[in-house]
Amino acid sequence: MKTSLAFRAAALAIAAAGALVAAPKPEWKQLFNGKNLDGWKHVGKGSMSVENGLIQTHGGMGLLYWTESKLGDCVLKVVYKMRDQNDNSGVFIRIPVPPTEAWMPVNYGYEVQIDNVAPGEDEYHVTGTLYSLTKPLARPGKPGPEWNTMEITLDGPRTIVTVNGVKVTDYTEGEPVPPKKLDFEPERGLRPNFGYIGLQNHSDNDVVFFKEVAVRPLKSSAVGQ
C-alpha cells in the first residue's frame, strides 16, 4: 500500500512538472496595427506618419505615445531601423501621466536610447542605455538601414534592455547614477513601476522607421493599468 501511494505521488509530481514545462508563454499584443496610428497620440514638435506599413519620424523633438494604458510587468518589443548610418530616436518608458509636451517624458520617465554613435557625447548616450543614466554592457546596435530588435523588460522596479538579443542595460530603481551634467539630460529620481510608453522623433536630420511595437506580459495577467 505504501509503495502504491509513493508511486502515485511520484507520478503526480512528474505530471505537474510536465504541465509547468508545457505551459505556453503569454502572446504578444501588437500596439501598432501596421495601417494607422489608432491608439497613439503625438505631442511636441514634428510628427509621425505610417508609410508602407512603417511608422516614420518627421522633425521634432516630439513624442508618439500609446494612450490606451500604462504598461508594466511586461516585455516591450520594438523593431526599428535608421535611415542613415546613424540616426537619433528613443523608446520612452515609465511615463507617470499622459504627456502634453515632449520634455515631460524626458524628466519623469526614461528614454531607452536609439543612437549608435554620438559625437561629443560619452557612453551614457548610446543605443540600449537609459539615456545619460546607465553605461552599456554591450554595443550590439546595427547601423541603418539594418533592422534592430529592442526588447525592454519592465519587471517591477527593474528595467532590462536587450538589443538584437544582447543585454545592454540591467537597472533597478535606486541604484546609483551619475549626476546630471547637461541641461537637456533628464532629472534624476525614481520612476513608477507602471507608466506610458512612447517613440521619439528627434529632428529633421534623424529619420527612424518602426516596423513593430508589441507587448507581452511577464505572467498570464494584465500589463496595463
Q: If helices are DSSP runs of H or I spanning 4 or more residues, what is the number of helices?
A: 2
Q: Which structural category fits the helices and strands? A: mainly beta
Classified by CATH, the class is Mainly Beta
Mean pLDDT: 90
Count of folded domains: 1
Number of strands: 13
The percentage helix is 10-25%
Summarize the main sheet.
8 strands, antiparallel
Distance N terminus to C terminus?
52 Å
Element order: H for helix, E for strand:
HEEEEEEEHEEEEEE
What is shown here, in short?
By secondary structure, the chain is mainly β. It is built from two helices and 13 strands; from the N terminus they run H-E-E-E-E-E-E-E-H-E-E-E-E-E-E. The protein has one domain (27-217): Exo-inulinase, domain 1 (Jelly Rolls), CATH 2.60.120.560.
Give keywords.
225 residues, mainly beta, Jelly Rolls, 8-stranded antiparallel sheet, 5-stranded antiparallel sheet, 2 helices, 13 strands, globular
What does this 3D model show about the protein?
It is a single chain. With 225 residues, this protein is mainly beta. It has a single domain (27-217), classed as Sandwich (Jelly Rolls). It contains two helices and 13 strands. The strands form two sheets. Strands 1, 3, 4, 6, 9, 10, 11 and 13 form an eight-stranded antiparallel sheet that branches. The longest helix is centred in the first third of the chain and has 21 residues, at 2-22. The protein is globular and about 45 Å long. 36% of the residues are buried.
